[in-house]
Amino acid sequence: MKKNNNWFALTPLAVFLVVYLVSSLVAGDFYKVPIAAAFLVASAYSLAFCAKGKIEERINIFSQGAGHKNVLLMIWIFILAGAFATTAKEIGAIDATVNITLQLLPGKLLFAGLFLASCFISMAVGTSVGTIVALVPVATGIAAETGISAPFITAIVVGGSFFGDNLSFISDTTIAATRTQGCSMADKFKANILIAAPAAIIVAAFYIFKGLEVDFTPAAQSTNLVLLIPYLLVIGMAIAGINVTLVLVAGIATNAIIGFATGKITWITWLGHIGSGIAGMGELIIVTMLAGGMLEVIRTAGGLDCLIAQMTSRINGKRGAEFSIAALVSLANLCTANNTIAIITTGGIAKDISQKYGLDSRKVASILDTFSCFIQGIIPYGAQMLMASGLAGISAMAILEYLYYPFALGIIAAVAIAFRFPRRMS
């Protein structure tokens, strides 16, 4: 297919946002408009107006995006995460973990403690999705126990999960950013930590202040420590760098062993709970496939190429070059809903810009990683938001208004470019 290479190829994204936001505003409730329905309308629009050729060719392009290996991998993770979360709940693992967490982080330190735990685990795991799978069920359990807003406490975990996604040495985004710019991970980390650390400190301080409002003292109660094993195993295996799918399979198997041993589930009920968990991820799977197909149509129609061409045509000076790279990877992330792919897509162009304007490769790698994580952290159709909303049973838009860390990260990163910070890399 010949690429259109014009802005019109990006209009499906605008259609999605208009359908979802306007309909929600008219309804007066973001919970009433399924995000899958908005994506279906936008996907149909992309096939009708952005794709060229016979209908079979258009559907072929859409299907290639919907069935891309990265999309299918994410669907596998959704399926396994749903099965793990449901079986863990049925054997009492979530309740046990919540009780221990409340005992260790009571009252006023609960918010800050949960945020710092999310930062630490994501740093060790190197993936925001793995952190969300491990901690969101615990967070929502705490919300149910204490009466705290579920979207608020879920957003704490989601925000903290992007700290490690942005900084970890084993994160896909770190690897992609450093390889495309030809700098070491250690050098990129030194540039990146000067942006991420202030954002995390500010947000942690806010959570400490916010925690002063919490008036909750957990009742002393005994907990079967054996029930903590599934979550400790999942976190430990993830920190060890084991593939997330293998981690979740091991978690599901551990839930079964503990459930059978304690008599809380049988073989038949275990299978039933797995089925319920998978069914609960149905909307996320549909949204992921629709988004993948629509974004492939946009890419094939030349939307991404046009975006890159336009963003690189108005560069003026080093500061402008850095802002252009930031805008480029941010918009690419909006079009791909995958921060790693966005970095890989724009990394070569960013390298050319940096060489032309004499930019520091460490700073450029940091910009690519930071702004892609910022955008990935706030789009409602990103894998992380979909996963968190699915596990918590709430709307992705409900989480969005409480995502303090990604916004703090984006603001500080923009200020750093504007004021040429850090100086030795600018």
Q: Bin the strand percentage.
A: under 5%
* Backbone CA Rg: 22 Å
Largest sheet: none
Helix tally?
21
Low-confidence parts lasting 5 or more residues at pLDDT below 50? none
Oligomer: single chain
Distance between the termini: 42 Å
**Global shape:** globular
The percent of residues in helical segments reads over 70%
Walkthrough of the structure:
It is built from 21 helices and no strands. It is mainly α and 426 residues long. The longest helix has 27 residues, at 185-211. The radius of gyration is 22 Å and the shape is globular. The chain starts with 10 loop residues before the first helix and ends in an 8-residue tail after the last helix. The mean pLDDT is 86.
Task: Sum up the structure in keywords.
about 425 residues, mainly alpha, globular
What's the short story on this structure?
This protein has 426 residues and is an all-alpha fold.
What's the arrangement of secondary structure elements?
Layout (H helix, E strand, L loop, with lengths): L10 H17 L7 H16 L4 H12 L2 H23 L1 H12 L5 H16 L2 H19 L3 H18 L4 H10 L3 H27 L17 H11 L4 H19 L4 H14 L1 H19 L2 H9 L5 H20 L2 H19 L3 H16 L6 H10 L3 H5 L3 H15 L8
